[in-house]
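Q&A log
Question type: sequence-to-structure
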Amino acid sequence: MTVLTVPRLLVPQRLTDPGPDPGETVTVSARPAPGPEVWLVDTTEYRDHAHRRAPATLDAQELTRAAEFVRNSDRDSYVCAHVALRRLLGAYLGLSPREVTVERAPCAHCDEPHGRPVLPGGALHFSLSHGAGLSLLAFATAPVGVDVEELVPTATIADTLSVLHPREAAELALLPAPDRPLAFTRVWTRKEAYLKGLGVGLSADPSSDYVGSGPTPAPIPGWSLMDVSVPEGHCAAVALRVP
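Response status: OK
Response body:
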């Protein structure tokens, strides 16, 4: 049985704007280490490059989806995340970003092809989360899920405790009110990362599994669950299936 040693807090690599040169060189390992490898994209820093490269990088469906956003901030976030995804997948696979083929896995409930995005053959697994000015991308040789969120406002927490495991809800209830946004968001990102790694997302009941609200994620059999270091005001986590 393989034992995977993971850090308590994973520090992501940062994908930067390569400047006006249209080259797409990114230094990556030949295949992601079992770690997994996590990359952070700051929308403000990466926006100009992403919009400059989008027409030659994104496929028709992605370009159509980008054009549908009403708010510029949402469009910027989407374009940055998906240009970064293709740029990194291309580097891992030895292809140009536009040559990367992304498919949809069968749905976990109906087997129709509208599940999570995957690569043909499954040699490389990836996960993407974006919003609130940041994107996180995770790559691994086993199923992986990642999530990043802004801290949930205190006023929202009381109405959403029912989505947590009873032990998590009890832990939050014992905390002083100012400490609850961090704890709740920490729980939520762990849950989303795990459910995305499973390939079911929020179609599954997030209250079923206990991930813990403390500084260290609770263990889940068959999975490595790690918090990810992100800028203040956010929480993030990554989940990796292990042997």
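Response note: Residues 1-6 have pLDDT under 50 and may be disordered.
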